Amino acid sequence: MPQHTSTRQSSGTTGASEHGVPPSPPEAGPTSHEDKPEPTAPKADTSAAGPTKSAEPAEHRSPEPEAEAKAAPKPKADAAPDPAEHRSPEPEADAAPEPKADTTPEPEPAEPQPPKPKADAAPEPAEPTAAVPPPPLPLRVLRALRPRAVRQGFRRWQGAHPAGARVLSLAVTVLALLLVVVALLLPNKWEQFEVAAFTRIPVEALLGAALLLVLPRRARVVVAVLGGVALGVLTVLNLTDIEFNEYLGRSFNVILDWQLLDDAQSYLADTLGGTVARLAAVGVVLLVLAVLAVMALSVVRVGGFLGRHKTRSTRGLLLVSALWMLCSTLDVQVSGFPVASEHTVTMIKYREKGVRATLQDERDFARTARADAFGDTPGSQLVPDLRGKDMIFTFIESYGRSAIEDPIMAPGVNETLDVSTQTLAKAGFHAKSGWLTSATYGGGSWLGHSTFMSGLWVDNQNRYRTVTSGDRLTLTEAFRKTGAWDTVGIMPGVQKGWPEAKWYGLDKVYNAFQMGYQGPKFSWSTMPDQYALEALQRLEHGKKRDKPLASFVILTSSHQPWAPVPEMVDWDEVGDGSVFRGIEAAGTRPADIITDPTRSREEYGRSVQYSMTALTEWMERYAHDDTVLVVLGDHQPVARVSGENASRDVPCSIVAKDPKVLEKIADWGWSDGLRPAHDAPVWRMNSFRDRFLTAYGSTPHPTGS
Length: 705
What we know:
Number of helices: 24
CATH architecture of the largest domain: 3-Layer(aba) Sandwich
Distance between the termini: 112 Å
Number of domains: 3
CATH superfamily of the largest domain: Alkaline Phosphatase, subunit A
Radius of gyration: 43 Å
Number of strands: 13
Helix content: 40-55%
């Protein structure tokens, strides 16, 4: 017996048979059970019942059971349609008869036929339907990735694979817990990344779990989100500390160091291109947002698990807490790391202490800067033993102790220093050298410059702003104040406004765009040192003048990433710098060495050799009997080159032809030549100004605090 399908009805038409063919009018008399036709919907009596209600479409109705379809009574012709006939009755299992064995095979169901039109109505012509093209692939992908679509798809998958769904849910919870624990134990220095550092029990996790267990659901979610965001912020700060310790040898200062992020982007633009710098900036922002979101979701996930399994979670928490207290009492350690960890609490205290120290330092340093041993010294009593000398204060970028003592870099650098010492000696110049401990490391050259020139320890941006906005006497200002010298600055690294020129006491400053250079940039360095020194000679030092010159010169060719490194050309061919185009094009690219510590060391050593060679050749070519050179490094190179835990010492040399100049510093104990001995005296860089002024006859006249 064929199973009945749903019948499609419309107002004013009769129902279709089980095969979709309109049934014949029923004959009078009883019909057999097997061939009884389906009841047809009578025509509506519009005069009595009003408009008729359209029958429910067939696809929205459940198939009627065969037994009930056979037992359905034949409707009267003049009766109003019973709404119950249009509903799908509940099937009754015991009403279904057993099919007869000799029943003829079921015919295939025919396609449903459209209802017959009324006789008095003209058939409406069928409108051709145009094929609707499928949406483009990107649109289909976006629709599939909608949150609602993803949730629905995941629920369908859960229903089809319950065991797999449980395993996946547990795996996600375990991953969330691991992320939380790793964030709580994350060090802020590369050298602390050891397996033992992540095998500890963080007390912060135990306290957080206890809090989440006692909170009701809504409060638990809110607290979990806030705690996750806070943990994400601490994670970002720890990651930032890692990079700052790598490049600057110190942690990130949450008050003072934000503007250095802009400097970092400028460095990337100069080194690897503007597109890379913009992509890096976008990537950093996305990474920060991702860390915050992932940590918040992870804590919420763990909190939800604890809330669903409070009894087992409480037992486990008590067990781990007891283990933490036992390890803390016995001071159990693994590879020097205590198993009972308080790392996050310690880091919070460390940052809070840093903020308080920064605020206190701002007040204290302002008082220190006002107390100047030579602040009220008249110009006539400043550096009388150097009158008539052309003074040149030169910084070589990133020229640190590692260049002279590192086994990879030292052989080439030391050979260059020894050759340069001999070259200067042939020209009648001699040198003495010692060590100065810089206030900065790996970068922040302006901090080293201001420390050396002002006699103050300027190791952060706030101190730099304080000292440069005041009237602290600098070395170049001391020469200008005498009225016996003109002062000039050669600043190839300055590419924007530089108001510090006034504080340094410079009558004139030449920045990167004012020296006539038409050659290529060498990565961050705007021009080779040889060109900058030639510009000094052409623009100022080589001119006839009524007064000697006190110059402040910054040489930048040894600035990271040390690729490509310039090469020396004949001084007569320097011209406008175009001669360096071929050298730059053939040089090493930054991307080739920036992740390779060994090659970085090699190229850094080459850059220092180049800078020192250019300077000593300039002295040999252009210096005269009254030229005095003070040359030093501003800081050590980054840890990738100088090594972990490297000192902050930089070489400092004084070069002169007049023997009386070096006799004045004979009691300093400095080494002869351009290479300071390993055991030569080491002073803090801020002590040099007062020692120098005193050595050359200046009389102290302190200002009050």
